[in-house]
Design goal:
The complex is a heterodimer of chains A (188) and B (188).
Chain A: H1 7-18, H2 28-39, H3 45-57, H4 62-98, H5 102-106, H6 109-139, H7 143-159, H8 163-187
Helix pairs in contact in A: 1-4, 3-4
Chain B: H1 2-16, H2 25-35, H3 41-53, H4 58-101, H5 105-135, H6 149-165, H7 169-187
């Protein structure tokens, strides 16, 4: 099955990443960026952000959605199916095993300590990728992206505005900006 | 037919949980505690705690757990498939639209405005996780000095190492978990 499409690499990358997505789906973004943008070169940085927007605004788990998108991009519908399998298998196996003795697992203090350390590490991993991405946006030296970044942050953080609504509004702003600049250029 | 019920319950959870993880919790509770007598409220709380302690999306983890409790391994597979199905259809449709039209100037303008918004959302999620890690709760406490210094130290070390040496995030996460076990055993 290893024709010219990298099915094996895709599946095992997903398997590994999915087994490591602790603390909510967002950590999959820095992990996928490292693997698929930097190590394998399958995606561009901007594309990764676009796919994140799609993963975010679709129903379902962000991590699974992102996996579907990367799989589809790299190897079409079959790739998407493989990516789903790879990202669903680890939680399926781990939870199946843990469900047998979950009360003991929950109250185990070593597990708890590891979890507490891990959460702090995951927060660092996510904020590190935010710093890198934000730098890229500030380097464009345009006002609009910076305003969108801050406004979206305030809306989501302090007013808990629905994420789909934020995506739609920002898309509308981008469309208006493009049309307006197009018209200005036509007038010249 | 229990498998059909499981499948359908998790199709609904998959379809209506937008924005990932914690947004899905009330929906899952409604389906598996209120609508169907699959879990007691205590069991549900246990599932949520375990879902947070294990890798993988909360919705998939709970699908596996509930599926096993209700219908064994086949139950887990059916529930997981139901959970992933709606996302699969919607995400693939959006992906097709994205790759078909992303060359258009207007679409590029829209995407350019979406990217900063996505960064803002990742930032917000990262901040929530940081608060959870250093304060042990989801919202900022009244007393901001009530910091878990071990978690804060792990976070800062991880962030500095990531920024400076661009280490693979997976190593950072493993290291943070190990540091958690060591430090809490020594300091706690």
């Amino acid at each position: 099955m290893s024709g010219k499409k990298p099915y094996g690499q895709l599946f095992f990358s997903m398997l590994r990443l999915s087994a490591c997505t602790f603390g909510g789906g967002f950590v999959i973004i820095p992990l996928m960026r490292k693997r698929f943008v930097q190590e394998l070169g399958w995606l561009e940085e901007q594309e990764m952000l676009d796919l994140t927007a799609i993963a975010q605004s679709s129903p379902g788990a962000v991590a699974v959605n992102a996996a579907i998108l990367v799989g589809y991009r790299v190897a079409g519908p079959a790739g998407a199916a493989l990516a789903i399998l790879g990202s669903v298998l680890p939680p399926l196996v781990i939870i199946s095993v843990i469900s047998l003795f979950y009360r003991a697992f929950r109250s185990n203090s070593i597990v708890n300590f590891a979890m507490m350390g891990l959460l702090a590490g995951v927060a660092a991993v996510i904020l590190d990728v935010v710093a890198t991405l934000a730098q890229g946006i500030f380097r464009q030296k345009r006002l609009l992206p910076v305003v969108v970044l801050l406004a979206a942050f305030i809306a989501v953080r302090f007013f808990s505005v629905n994420i789909v609504l934020v995506i739609l509004l920002c898309g509308a702003v981008g469309a208006a900006d493009t049309l307006w600049r197009g018209r200005k250029e036509a007038e010249k | 037919m229990i498998y059909l019920e499981l499948f359908w319950a998790f199709v609904q959870i998959g379809l209506f949980s937008i924005g990932g993880g914690y947004a899905a919790m009330p929906l899952i509770q409604q389906q598996v505690v209120d609508v169907h007598p699959w879990l007691t409220m205590t069991q549900f709380a246990d599932v949520m705690a375990i879902a947070e302690m294990t890798p993988g999306p909360v919705a998939i983890n709970s699908a596996t757990f509930v599926g096993i409790q209700v219908g064994g391994l086949p139950g887990a597979l059916v529930a997981t498939a139901g959970c992933v199905l709606p996302a699969c259809v919607i995400v693939l449709t959006l992906a097709w639209v994205y790759y078909r039209f992303r060359g258009l100037t207007l679409v590029q303008g829209i995407l350019a405005a979406l990217r900063p918004a996505v960064v803002a959302m990742i930032a917000s999620a990262g901040l929530s996780l940081l608060i959870l890690a250093v304060y042990g709760q989801r919202t900022l406490p009244a007393d901001l000095t009530a910091i878990d210094w071990v978690a804060a130290a792990i976070f800062l070390t991880a962030l500095v190492v990531l920024r400076k040496w661009k280490v693979n995030p997976l190593y950072i996460m493993g290291g943070s978990a190990a540091a958690g076990v060591l430090l809490y055993l020594v300091c706690g």
